[in-house]
Specification:
The chain has 140 residues and is mainly alpha-helical. It contains 6 helices and no strands. Helix 2 runs antiparallel to helix 5 and helix 3 packs antiparallel against helix 4. The longest helix has 31 residues.
Length: 140
């Protein structure tokens, strides 16, 4: 029971922590949506993908359809981190291996949680850096 409660608290805490950055992304997207700015849609996509990722990361149990729900976003999220390409590919490979292990084992489940945690740390690092940029902090 304590594990389920820890997952719920971790999920809520992560969403609250990320919320302030996502709000900045959405605010800037709203300002730039009508202007011809290249790749402006990234300001909308990243918070949505991260929110889905956090939901999967803190799920009490995982089913194979969850992998389908977030598989296509994993590549984008991993490439948003500042990790070297070799590490990004390794993360994706280990995640694929974890999901293809049937039935799941303690090792595959642990590896999946470790990979998710590493991706989350990389995402939070990059998101916090990008929100410090002038475009996010200007009040005009």
């Amino acid at each position: 029971r304590w594990f389920h409660l820890a997952l719920l608290v971790g999920h809520i805490a992560t969403l609250c922590y990320c919320g302030k950055y996502w709000w900045q992304y959405f605010s800037v997207y709203k300002k730039l949506a009508n202007v011809d700015v290249p790749h402006c849609e990234q300001l909308l996509v990243l918070p949505l993908f991260m929110c889905n990722f956090v939901g999967v990361m803190f799920a009490r149990s995982l089913h194979y359809q969850f992998y389908v729900w977030y598989y296509h976003t994993l590549h984008y999220l991993v490439w948003t981190t500042g990790y070297p390409v070799k590490n990004r590919l390794l993360l994706l490979g280990v995640i694929e291996m974890c999901w293809n292990t049937f039935p799941s084992t303690v090792a595959s489940s642990g590896a999946l949680h470790v990979c998710h945690f590493i991706i989350l740390v990389g995402l939070l690092s990059q998101v916090s850096k990008s929100c410090d940029m002038t475009i996010f902090t200007s009040r005009s």
